[in-house]
Amino acid sequence: FMWDYVGIVRTDKRLQRATHRVNLLKQEILEYYSNFKVSNDLIELRNLVQIAELIIRCALTRRESRGLHYTLNYPDTMDEARDTLLVPGNYASDAWAE
Question: Can you give the CATH number for the domain in which 30 is found?
């Protein structure tokens, strides 16, 4: 689903759908952690889902198109590029509120 919703050409609507899918996966993984033996594959899946979530959140925060990442909702490039790096202190900032 990442390729379909968070590919090179993006829209806010598709990014929101991807967020919903990632949240469902996170819940399933959490339930699996509670009920079954943890394996390397499960840990890798958890890590991949966390990376997917970070990519989606960064894409939702960027209000411009830059390079190969084109956002239909924001087709122009901003003169001043805004960083979309997540730092532990601002992970739960208003920009990430759902």
Answer: 1.20.58.100
Q: In the numeric block, which tokens belong to residue 82?
A: 């805004």
3-state helix, strand, coil in the chain (%, to 5): 55, 5, 35
Domain that holds residue 44: 2-96
Nearest to 70 by CA among 18, 4, 13, 11: 11
pLDDT of residue 22: 96
- Write down the pLDDT at residue 96: 46
Q: Which of 45, 24, 91, 19 is nearest to 10 (CA)?
A: 19
Q: State the pTM of this model.
A: 0.73
